[in-house]
Design a protein that fits this description.
Elements (H helix, E strand, L loop, with lengths): L2 H20 L5 H8 L3 H8 L7 H10 L4 H8 L13 E2 L2 H4 L5 H9 L12 H9 L3 H13 L3 E3 L5 E4 L3 E2 L6 H21 L19 H20 L23
Parallel strand pairs: 1-4
Antiparallel strand pairs: 2-3
Helix pairs in contact: 2-3, 7-9, 8-9
Length: 256
């Protein structure tokens, strides 16, 4: 019996015990009925003798008002379970050329950090300190993001949050995109020297491949990036902004 079933079984046992503590006469039959299941099935689950399907687990969780984070913890360990990816909206071409500098997107993410507060006296100073940029640069970037409708503000002009999740994938001007990626590569080089290895991951792989699979590889990389974003952002207190960059390029020249 896998770890997920055992942990979910423990949760159900605790819930059953909680109800018994309130009512000494509360029975397994009553508990199973409240879950819309048979008592024999629930008994096997409680004793980790029966697997629980994704559909059944979600139905039980709904009846017991299990919070989303806890449910994802149980579901994510089930065989073949895949998290539903976050939805992204592509940044418009005419917008991207104004916000291609790396710190614009870092600011969009930073507003979701636990130490960011909408009522901070000087938000630009906070952005500057967190991203190691000048206050002037931070202030200009925030104003630009607000004008483009990517950040929301209150009546006092203080930043409240982002409008939507965004992605730069696809349709952006090549010159702006190249500069954006160049800046991020430079930040990656700086991280190699300044960030402890326990707080970063740098690895590479060299392989011989058929060129016919490059298109599919690009699609898989995009899917992986979004899946990783969903995994990392789905729960927990956000205290850092990270950059995930994947480079996939040829080392050999094409032969005529």
């Amino acid at each position: 019996m896998n770890e997920t079933v055992n942990s979910f079984s423990v949760f159900l046992k605790q819930e059953l015990q909680r109800r018994k503590n309130k009512n000494a006469g509360y029975s397994l039959r009553a508990f199973a009925k409240s879950l819309g299941l048979s008592s024999s099935f629930v008994s096997k689950v409680l004793n980790a003798k029966k697997n629980v399907s994704q559909e059944t687990m979600m139905a039980i969780a709904s009846r017991l008002s299990v919070d989303e984070d806890s449910l994802h913890d149980y579901l994510s360990q089930l065989p073949n379970f895949k998290l539903k990816n976050m939805e992204f909206e592509t940044v418009a071409v005419d917008q991207f050329q104004y916000i291609s500098d790396w710190h614009h997107f870092a600011i969009l993410e930073a507003v979701s950090l636990t130490d960011f507060k909408a009522d901070m006296k000087d938000q630009s100073k906070w952005f500057a300190e967190r991203l190691s940029i000048s206050e002037e640069r931070a202030s200009s970037a925030v104003q630009r993001l607000v004008r483009l409708g990517l950040l929301t503000t209150n009546d006092k002009g203080q930043v409240l949050g982002i409008q939507k999740n965004h992605t730069t994938i696809g349709g952006v001007p090549s010159s702006a995109n190249r500069e954006h990626e160049r800046q991020l590569l430079q930040k990656a080089i700086e991280a190699l020297e300044e960030v402890p290895v326990v707080d970063r991951s740098n690895s590479s792989m060299t392989m011989a491949i058929p060129m016919s699979r490059v298109k599919e590889a690009r699609e898989k990389i995009i899917a992986f990036q979004r899946e990783m974003s969903t995994f990392l952002q789905r729960k927990g207190k956000r205290d850092s902004v990270y950059q995930l960059s994947i480079a996939f390029f040829p080392l050999t020249k094409k032969m005529n």
